[in-house]
């Protein structure tokens, strides 16, 4: 009996030692982030130190922050390999900006930069700060999830609200609003950033970095106007509806069928958008770009409300309406583009896939606000375009 027990103990010791030797540990890596102003802003003599650089692990959501030194360098000595968003921001009041630069500005100034990287070895990343004014127009609400799929209007009642956060009237003419192309493969399943250098047909030479110098909009709309047609007073907002109808009541769709009654069992869970300021009806845009062999058929529920102005459509080739991703894999960007004819910008299909046409817009446009929606489930998180 003692001999058998001794053999059993020796066997356990052997198995434990084997298992212990088989354990592989993840080696930590280091990250150095160099933050710099543009050449024009560098001439102002703004300091580079004490700028908080935040890195976010896109798989588990873990965040780390380090401040830059006098040379604009922030060091993360030990982080877990993975996909990261690297971001830095620095805000100056108008008074601080004048004290540092002797340049008078009418409002606060914000500098921001963001980069997404797959970090598997020790790395050095450069971020160039982009400047903009704090305030002005911001997204106040983004109703992207839509109402209940069984008792509500599903996705048909999606909308965004844009708010004037300044103390001056802002004219909304030529304001662009849209969503960029997203990577649908979850990070946990090996999703990586879209590589736009691999688009079918290739990118023209001499146009810069296809991945860093541009945004690619799968949906893009513009508020029409000649310059001062659409004033927005301080503290006021507008609603841009996907479909500007009263979704609490039945209505007739483009197929002549009634939407409602059995389809909307609980009007309280949806909303009336018939008084929206604008809507994103894309029927005529889709008709003008239709290349099929059969008669064009409008999307059933993209019903036009003639009492609500339509936004100009710059791109919606890959879908039948501005259908926002209800699962939280989306972003929303608004910008103005003085001196840039967005309508003439090229359209590229999804890299290596040839689907989902996306309009290329240079990041040098004046981005006023941007919001990224991230699903709370780590296993479902993806890389959206505005990263």
| Strand element count | 23
Oligomer: single chain
If you compute it from the alpha carbons, what radius of gyration comes out, rounded to the nearest whole angstrom? 26 Å
Strand content: 25-35%
Q: Name the shape in a single word.
A: globular
Q: Count the helices. How many?
A: 4
Helical amount: 10-25%
End-to-end C-alpha gap: 67 Å
> Main β-sheet: number of strands, strand sense, barrel status?
7 strands, antiparallel
- The overall pLDDT average reads 86
Tell me the structural class: mainly beta
Are there runs of 5+ residues with pLDDT below 50, and where? none
The total domain count is: 2
SSE series: HEHEEEEHEEEEEEEEEEEEEHEEEEE
Overview in brief:
The chain is mainly β and 387 residues long. Helix content is 10%, strand content 33%.
What would you note in describing this structure?
The protein has 387 residues and is mainly beta. It is built from 4 helices and 23 strands. The chain folds into 2 domains: 29-133, Immunoglobulin-like, CATH 2.60.40; 137-380, no CATH class. The protein has helices spanning 2-22, 39-42, 94-101, 283-288; strands at residues 29-36, 52-57, 63-67, 73-79, 82-92, 109-119, 123-128, 130-133, 137-143, 159-164, 170-171, 176-180, 214-222, 231-232, 237-241, 251-252, 258-259, 278-279, 312-315, 329-336, 347-348, 358-362, 366-374. Strands 12, 13, 19, 20, 21, 22 and 23 form a 7-stranded antiparallel sheet that branches. Strand 2 and strand 3 (63-67) form a beta hairpin. The longest helix has 21 residues, at 2-22. The radius of gyration is 26 Å and the shape is globular. The N and C termini lie far apart (67 Å).
């Amino acid at each position: 009996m003692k001999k058998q027990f001794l053999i059993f103990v020796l066997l356990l010791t052997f198995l434990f030692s084997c298992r212990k030797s088989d354990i592989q540990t993840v080696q930590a890596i280091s990250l150095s982030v160099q933050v710099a102003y543009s050449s024009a802003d560098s001439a102002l003599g703004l300091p580079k130190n004490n700028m908080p650089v935040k890195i976010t692990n896109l798989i588990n959501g873990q965040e780390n922050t380090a401040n830059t030194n006098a040379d604009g360098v922030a060091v993360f000595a030990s982080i877990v390999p993975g996909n990261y968003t690297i971001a830095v921001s620095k805000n100056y009041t108008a008074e601080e900006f004048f004290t540092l630069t002797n340049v008078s500005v009418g409002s606060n100034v914000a500098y921001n930069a963001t980069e997404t990287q797959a970090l598997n070895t020790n790395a050095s990343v450069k971020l160039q700060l982009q400047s903009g004014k704090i305030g002005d127009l911001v997204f106040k609400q983004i109703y992207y999830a839509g109402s209940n799929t069984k008792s509500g209007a599903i996705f048909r009642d999606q909308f965004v609200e844009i708010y004037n956060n300044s103390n001056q009237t802002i004219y909304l003419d030529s304001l662009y609003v849209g969503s960029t192309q997203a990577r649908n493969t979850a990070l946990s399943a090996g999703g990586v950033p879209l590589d736009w250098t691999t688009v079918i047909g290739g990118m023209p030479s001499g146009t810069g970095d296809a991945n860093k110098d541009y945004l690619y909009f799968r949906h893009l709309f513009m508020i029409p106007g000649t310059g001062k047609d659409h004033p927005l007073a301080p503290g006021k907002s507008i609603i841009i509806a996907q479909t500007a109808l009263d979704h609490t009541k039945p209505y007739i769709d483009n197929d002549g069928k009634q939407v409602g009654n059995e389809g909307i069992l609980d009007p309280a869970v949806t909303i009336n958008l018939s008084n929206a300021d604008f809507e994103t009806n894309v029927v005529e845009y889709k008709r003008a770009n239709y290349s099929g062999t059969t008669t064009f058929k409008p999307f059933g529920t993209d019903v036009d409300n003639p009492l609500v102005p339509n936004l100009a459509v710059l791109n919606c080739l890959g879908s039948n309406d501005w259908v926002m991703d209800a699962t939280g894999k989306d972003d929303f960007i608004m910008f103005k583009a003085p001196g840039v004819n967005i309508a003439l910008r090229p359209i590229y299909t999804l890299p290596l896939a040839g689907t989902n046409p996306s309009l290329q817009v240079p990041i040098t446009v004046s981005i006023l606000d941007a919001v990224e929606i991230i699903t709370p489930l780590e296993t479902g998180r993806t890389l959206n375009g505005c990263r």
